[in-house]
């Protein structure tokens, strides 16, 4: 414990010295999110400095081994780091599919060479990854995917298309599920491939969302050559990796249910006003917000508890479905409540006053939370089958 | 009275349904949105509305209308909702017309109602001043000066405010914001000196505006209804608007439901039509139940406005509270059942979600109306 207290003091001192002041305010919009990559966009120098410093220390990936660029922290140390960052209001230095999804899968299934090659640039935010899972005909039923990778001796030849590929037009590399054995049962002919989005034959077509933005794409592969050493794990056994990665994706989506945002009651107070007792001047909205906050606080502990159970090896493999279901539904509810709190001010779509419709665009974006990473229905099916073991599920 | 449409009303519904589906489908809204049309609606379509008798649905024949009732206005609104049609129906044919009908002098009625029925002018009701609908909190000042009044203040969320030829403005002639006593409605020309208007582009691509009043001078005969005692009139007009808007919401929810049902009967995953999954069947059936319960409240509210308007306040609150909530459920389920497609602009279901949110907020949301019900029932 004394060691942990030393660690806490050192961590705090380091954060205070190294986290730029601009990185200690709540994030306001999408440009406050740093994605890194070969051609990174930084809104200001503070974003760049913060990423470089955290990346160099491996604290973008606190629990990954130092040998692969990570922070090498224990679970308790990582909690302390997260707690100190929260207390000081430090922003996350890097958002990354590499950190949330690919990294954990490579740590478990990658070869030593693959870990050495791909993990450190993820930690430092130098390579931005996208996820090539869904296809037009394979969404909830992901295992029915049809994108083909033919073995051509020294390389695979990839043909087909993916859809809903988030940020495919901005990503440097893709982790992609492909069918390597079309004759095998659907779960058994899938492999997990990594390749450069700059490879000849890869093209992307952005799709316009209801939020008015186009962060996701349809992605096309036309005779894309992929070197053989870019296959992860065992050929035709990629489904296991795919599922393992999904549990990490689900955990990262569920964290949206936490409270790392401006409290809803503050938004409501600004738009609805207070009564002469200093309480929100809308009884029913006040009740709605209070019930939401109750659930948000409890859910934060549920996430922490799940992490602790996992560390002790006492968690069910399907638990991430519970967190994903609950956290994504909670985040949707949060934004419904935010919209009610903002009233007609929150309906403007374009004005400067509304920051170009920040509230309604964010609200609409959250509707995807219960779709991306596997729908809520799919999570409930998984819970019914794997944890509850209901007959016929 | 039977809580169903009679034969004439059914005929009207069929006419409105085929007219709107052909002349103002969702594609028309997309076009207005994508071309960023400054008016925010089609004047040509509005002329057609007048020709069909829709613009004058509530206006007696003496004033050039067709002299129908609130049920009929609701029938038209429901079809508007189904097609997400951007028209001045609510602002002009319902709210402005009701204000004149319920509060206007003979001269005021004669001056404006025939023009509304003929589709010649656009009207708008300016009530809200803050982010939430709170009519009794009206602060916009109307001070007696000379032979009339001088208006100072600001209104927000004024539907069709930037294109209105005639504004019906709720103003405070005495008392304090929060008091129901001391309100007066005024008729103000949209282009009167001192009026400045800003179109606010909304999430649903329907019209709204912020309207500022800077020393706007009006004559004494610009007052609509009693000076200082305008709250009751305002409430009556708002209740007509709320009930008709509930009917529109019912159309939005009904169509969102139909669109999602068509989708779950067509899309397959796991080698089955997704509509075969009992999880989706139960949620569809639940949603259908919610929408049906709302329909009952809406028609009851509209009929009550026709038969005994003085008793309509409570059932109107029930109708608007329900319509907001069940339509929100319908659009949320609609998007969710579409999976990734529901998040795209290419599919219509997201447009229904956007319209539902705005109509939920407009003229009081579900919380506002549930609170009114509680107060009406003394708790
Ligand atoms: C914003 C966003 C970002 C995304 N990013 C990525 C990405 O980067 N990479 C990627 O590969 N994919 C991505 N996706 C795709 C996402 O994983 C799929 O959309 C999702 O898995 C659902 O598939 P679908 O869209 O084909 O819907 P469908 O599978 O067609 O589902 C339609 C509806 O049917 C329901 N349903 C299906 N099967 C069942 C069942 N057995 N029981 C009950 N209900 C069922 C679903 O829950 C849903 O409500 C993203 C999606 C979104 C919305």
TrEMBL record, chain A:
Keyword entries, A-Z: FAD, Flavoprotein, Oxidoreductase
Top-level taxon in the UniProt lineage: Bacteria
Classification via InterPro entries: Acyl-CoA_Oxase/DH_mid-dom, Acyl-CoA_Oxase/DH_mid-dom_sf, AcylCo_DH-like_C, AcylCo_DH/oxidase_C, AcylCoA_DH/ox_N, AcylCoA_DH/ox_N_sf, AcylCoA_DH/oxidase_NM_dom_sf, Mycobact_Acyl-CoA_DH
The protein's name in its UniProt record: Acyl-CoA dehydrogenase family protein
PANTHER family recorded: ACYL-COA DEHYDROGENASE, ACYL-COA DEHYDROGENASE FADE29
Protein family (similarity comment): Belongs to the acyl-CoA dehydrogenase family.
Acyl-CoA dehydrogenase/oxidase N-terminal domain boundaries: 5-126
From TrEMBL, chain B:
Cofactor(s) for this UniProt protein: FAD
GO molecular function: oxidoreductase activity
Keyword check for Flavoprotein: yes
Superkingdom of the source species: Bacteria
Domain (Acyl-CoA dehydrogenase/oxidase N-terminal): residue spans on this chain: 6-120
Stretches assigned to the Acyl-CoA dehydrogenase/oxidase C-terminal domain: 229-376
Pfam entry (one): Acyl-CoA_dh_M
Enzyme Commission (EC) number: 1.-.-.-
UniProt similarity note: Belongs to the acyl-CoA dehydrogenase family.
Protein's name in the database: Acyl-CoA dehydrogenase family protein
UniProt source species: Camelimonas fluminis
């Amino acid at each position: 414990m004394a060691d942990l207290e030393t660690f806490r003091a050192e961590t705090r001192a380091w954060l205070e010295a190294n986290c730029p002041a601009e990185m200690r305010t709540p994030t306001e919009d999408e440009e406050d999110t740093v994605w890194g990559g070969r051609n990174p966009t930084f809104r200001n120098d503070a974003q760049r400095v913060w990423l470089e410093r955290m990346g160099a220390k491996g604290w973008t990936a606190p629990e990954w081994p130092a040998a692969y660029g990570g922070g090498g922290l224990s679970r308790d140390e990582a909690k302390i780091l997260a707690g100190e960052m929260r207390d000081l209001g430090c922003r996350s230095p890097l958002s990354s599919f590499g950190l949330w999804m690919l990294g954990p899968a490579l740590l478990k299934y990658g070869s030593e060479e693959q870990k050495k090659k791909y993990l450190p640039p993820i930690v430092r935010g130098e390579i931005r990854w996208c996820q090539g899972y869904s296809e037009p005909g394979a969404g909830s039923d992901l295992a029915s995917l049809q994108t083909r990778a033919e073995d051509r001796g020294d390389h695979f030849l990839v043909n087909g298309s993916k859809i809903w590929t988030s940020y495919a037009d901005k990503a440097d590399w893709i982790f992609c599920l492909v069918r390597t054995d079309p004759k095998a049962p659907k779960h058994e002919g899938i492999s997990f491939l990594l390749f450069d989005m700059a490879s000849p034959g890869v093209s992307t077509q952005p799709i316009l969302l209801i939020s008015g933005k186009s962060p996701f794409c349809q992605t096309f592969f036309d005779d894309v050559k992929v070197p053989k050493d870019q296959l992860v794990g065992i050929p035709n056994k990629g489904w296991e990796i795919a599922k393992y990665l999904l549990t990490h994706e689900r955990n990262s989506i569920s964290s949206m249910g936490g409270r790392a945002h401006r409290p809803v009651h503050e938004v409501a107070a600004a738009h609805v006003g207070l009564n002469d007792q200093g309480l929100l001047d809308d009884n029913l909205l006040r009740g709605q917000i209070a019930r939401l906050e109750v659930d948000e606080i409890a859910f934060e502990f549920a996430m922490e508890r799940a992490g602790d159970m996992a560390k002790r090896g006492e968690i069910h493999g399907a638990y991430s479905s519970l967190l994903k279901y609950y956290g994504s539904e909670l985040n949707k509810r949060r934004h419904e409540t935010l919209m009610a709190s903002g009233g007609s001010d929150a309906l403007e779509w374009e004005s400067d006053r509304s920051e170009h419709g920040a509230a309604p665009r964010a609200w609409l974006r959250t509707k995807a939370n219960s779709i991306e990473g596997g729908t809520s229905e799919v999570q409930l099916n998984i819970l019914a089958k794997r944890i509850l073991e209901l007959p016929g599920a | 009275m039977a809580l169903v449409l009679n034969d004439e009303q059914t005929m009207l519904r069929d006419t409105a349904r085929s007219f709107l589906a052909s002349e103002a489908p969702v594609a028309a809204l997309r076009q207005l949105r994508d071309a960023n049309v400054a008016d925010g609606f089609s004047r040509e379509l509005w002329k057609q509305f007048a020709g069909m008798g829709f613009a004058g649905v509530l206006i007696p024949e003496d004033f050039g209308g067709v002299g129908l009732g609130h049920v009929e206005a609701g029938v038209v609104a429901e079809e508007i909702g189904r097609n997400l049609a951007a028209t001045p129906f609510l602002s002009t044919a319902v709210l402005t017309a009701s204000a004149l009908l319920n509060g206007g002098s003979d001269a005021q009625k004669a001056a404006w109602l025939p023009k509304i029925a003929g589709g010649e002018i656009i009207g708008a009701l300016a009530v809200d001043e803050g982010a939430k609908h709170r009519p009794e909190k009206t602060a916009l000042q109307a001070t007696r000066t000379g032979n009339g009044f001088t208006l100072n203040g600001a209104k927000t969320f004024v539907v069709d405010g930037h294109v209105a030829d005639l504004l019906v403005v709720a103003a405070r002639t005495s008392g304090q914001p929060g008091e129901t006593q001391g309100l007066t409605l005024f008729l103000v020309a949209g282009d009167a000196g001192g009026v400045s208007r800003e179109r606010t582009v909304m999430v649903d691509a329907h019209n709204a505006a912020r309207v500022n009043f800077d020393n706007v001078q009006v004559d004494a005969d610009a007052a609509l209804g009693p000076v200082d005692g305008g709250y009751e009139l305002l409430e009556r007009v708002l209740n007509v608007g709320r009930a008709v808007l509930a009917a529109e919401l019912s159309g939005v929810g009904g169509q969102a439901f139909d669109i999602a049902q068509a989708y779950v009967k067509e899309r397959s995953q796991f080698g089955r039509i997704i509509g075969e999954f009992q999880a989706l069947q139960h949620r569809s059936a639940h949603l259908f139940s919610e929408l049906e319960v709302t329909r009952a409240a809406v028609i009851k509210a509209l009929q009550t406005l026709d038969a005994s308007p003085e008793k309509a306040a409570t059932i109107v609150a029930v109708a608007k509270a329900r319509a907001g909530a069940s339509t929100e459920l319908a659009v949320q389920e609609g998007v969710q059942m579409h999976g990734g497609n529901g998040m795209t602009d290419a599919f219509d279901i997201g447009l229904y979600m956007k319209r539902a949110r705005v109509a939920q907020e407009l003229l009081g949301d579900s919380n506002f109306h549930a609170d009114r019900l509680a107060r009406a029932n003394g708790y």
